[in-house]
Amino acid sequence: MTDEEDRVIVAQVISGQKELFRLLVERHEQAVYGMGISFFRNAEDASDFTQEVFLKTFRNLSYFEGRSRFSTWLYKIAYNTALNSVTRKKDYQSLAEEEVIPNNDTPERELLREIARKAVQTAIAELPQRFKVCVDLFFFYDRSYQEIEVITGYPVNTIKSHVFRAKKILRGKLAGFAGHTGLGRGGT
Fold first, then answer.
1. Which CATH class name applies to 3-85?
2. Contact yes or no for 36/82 (Cβ under 8 A)
């Protein structure tokens, strides 16, 4: 499904074919749930969050103007809902900190992968929250700087700075690992 198909479905839902909203849910549910896991750190709260986000999205669908991708508009609703839902004591947890499904590799390679994963998790966990959010949206949700601006409200130059500084911090913390060639798209 493309962005244009999202727009067509939105128009159809607004015009009365409300049952088609399930197609938008099916397409974007996993990403919204992943954001919920990042903020709430447990499946039950993430599931409740996902339902709340799609309920808000359905109620406000007529406000989608199509100036951005539907997914960007949806992620902004999700991000704001999450920020309004978490207490100040809870921190955002990057998707990079989530458990990875084990692969059927040799025990040595699995051990090395686990050590590397824990090192990355530790390094990301030490980043300031604003850096983690920008890094997650940029690398794990594949959002552009402009989309991250819409979602978070941070100016584009601030986002670029956060991503750049986070990569620099992570590069420094992970420099000791063999095979480390840099973080980022295109090796930057």
1. mainly alpha
2. yes
